[in-house]
Amino acid sequence: IEETAYQNDKLAMLGKISAAIAHEIRNPLTAIRGFIQLLKPHLVQLGKDEYAQIILSEIDRANDIIYEFLNSSKPSTPQKSVISVASLLKEVVLLTESEALMKGCEISIKEVAPQMSIAVDVKQIKQVLLNMIKNAMEAIEEVGNEHSGQIEVKAELEEKYVNISIRDNGKGMDKAMLAKLFSPFFTTKEKGTGLGLSVSYRIIKNHRGTIFADSIKGVGTIFVISLPLAT
Ligand code: ADP
Ligand code: MG
């Protein structure tokens, strides 16, 4: 419990800092982006169009990171509406399918018990599921090319809860890593923020749900998100 309080403090502080500076960084980034776009034809003429590409994609990445930091700070009262689990999962999978294809992995909805609905902040829960799927794709990517990646999404009924699971056959984790998984800033990625799972954890907790992970190194990982059904 103390650990959790400490982590919430860290996230709250991070939120204040990022809210204060995000605006100040975003404006110059927007200006830079605009001018690079104006310069692009000249760079193309010089045969340096890949420079423009790199600059633009790095600016976009910086913006994404700012966005992720900002999101971790948002006050956490969910704006709830009732949504069917089946349609939520379909939407999320649709959003990730093209990226999955590019990364050589297949994402499929395995089974969804019919007629389950949850009362949730749809934007927040989508963000959680997208975080999970993104991590799964990255874990598959890290295994290498010859590997045929599989991501399976399921939703099963358990009493008054729905258990949404995301399973991948990516690189997996050992027990030590599993233990640190939800800590803010824990990342093993060169370009990671280590915020995806800590923010997801907080969102699910605010929905009176639970989130659980299990993994075997070299085999794969499963995340199970448990949310109360709408009454
Ligand atoms: P980030 O993705 O920015 O590193 P996250 O909070 O999303 O931050 O994840 C934290 C760490 O947990 C990752 O760096 C990775 O090492 C590990 N991880 C998360 N999901 C998976 C997964 N599906 N398979 C293997 N490792 C994972
Ligand atoms: Mg992540």
From TrEMBL:
Q: Tell me the ranges covered by the Histidine kinase domain, including all copies.
A: 20-231
- As recorded in UniProt, its EC number(s) are 2.7.13.3
UniProt enzyme class: transferase
Q: Which of UniProt's keywords are assigned here?
A: ATP-binding, Kinase, Nucleotide-binding, Phosphoprotein, Transferase, Two-component regulatory system
This enzyme catalyses: ATP + protein L-histidine = ADP + protein N-phospho-L-histidine
Q: Name one GO molecular function term.
A: ATP binding
Q: Which residues form a coiled coil?
A: none
The name of this protein is histidine kinase
Give the organism the record lists.
Paenibacillus antibioticophila
Q: Which residues of the full protein are shown?
A: 138 to 368 of 368
